[in-house]
Amino acid sequence: MMRIKLINPNTSSAMTEAMARAAREVASPGTRIDAVTAASGPASIEGHYDEAISVIGLIDQMRADPDADAYVIACFGDPGLLAARELTEAPVLGIAEAAMHTATFLATSFSVVTTLDRTRIISEALVRNYGMQAACRRVRATDLPVLELEEPGDRVNEIVFAECLRALDQDRCGAIVLGCAGMAGLVDYLRARLPVPVIDGVTAAVKIAEALVGGGLRTSKHGDLAYPLPKAYSGSLAAYAPSVREGLGEQRPEIHAAR
Predict the structure, then answer these.
(1) Which residues fall within 8 angstroms of residue 209, CB to CB, at 6 or more apart?
(2) What per-residue confidence (pLDDT) applies to 234?
(3) Is 148 exposed, middle or buried (0-12, 13-18, 19+ CB in 10 A)?
(4) What is the per-residue pLDDT across 235-248, written as a single tens digit (0 to 9) for each?
(5) How far apart are CA 114 and CA 76, in angstroms?
(6) Backbone CA torsion sign across 5, 11, 13, 17
(7) Calpha distance 88→213 (Å, rounded)
(8) Residue 154: its pLDDT value, please?
């Protein structure tokens, strides 16, 4: 049995449940999806400050469960992705990176349809960080707050659909990447109405995680993704200081639940 831990870094349990349903629909019969909501952090992640604060809740969920076969960070900003990869040898997938790579397997170009305009700017930075400038035609904002996606209805569906149509017409893109984990529930609606692939990062990340684990691949511990260096942390973060244990001839920190 392969176990993938899907972590929602915001504190919306309704959104976690929607993402869990989408993930379980595509997971292989031998894969278990453990979906969890951050116990601390912002109600929604809609800016740099929200992202920074959300990383603590993400790390708490990883430290509480160090034995998952893979982890998926279910927020399109991919908050704390590289920090999370330092903590474990298990593959850690961010849904934005997974969705963009998946789009390039299916089309020579894609546009991202996201939520607020300020998160459009964050997504544009990810496009650059992931080397996707040649493939990404445009990042488009719908100006929908993230929490409106908890239970999408006709209004939300129509707004996202209309922006996708504008992307096809104006950007001449070959695929649509949905720029928010909360849009996972819109995939069937959009795929039935659009003539191009519609990629949801949650399900893309789950399938890539299955492939990496099934192929016996692990996160590199050579270079910048090596385990965090053991040192003292001060103040309210003292419990997050990496400890050390011996393993395979090297110093490796022990990931454990925060006290």
Answers:
(1) 4, 69, 70, 71, 72, 91, 93
(2) 96
(3) middle
(4) 999 999 988 643 33
(5) 9
(6) negative
(7) 13
(8) 86
Q: What is the pLDDT of residue 248?
A: 33
pLDDT at position 244: 67
Given a cut of 70, the residues of the chain with pLDDT beneath it are 244-259
Question: DSSP readout, 99-118?
Answer: HHHHHHHH-S-EEEEESSHH
DSSP single-letter state for residue 131: T
Q: How far is CA 215 from CA 91, 145, 178, 198, 257, in A?
A: 11, 38, 27, 26, 29
Enclosing H/E stretch for 94: strand 92-94
Judge contact between 205 and 98, C-beta under 8 A: yes
**Residue 223 backbone phi and psi in degrees, to 5:** 95, -140
DSSP 138-207: EEEE----GGGGSS--HHHHHHHHHHHHHIIIII--S-EEE-SGGGGGGHHHHHTT-SS-EEEHHHHHHH
- pLDDT for the residue numbered 252: 54
CA distances for 32 relative to 202, 242, 246, 256, angstroms:
15, 29, 30, 22
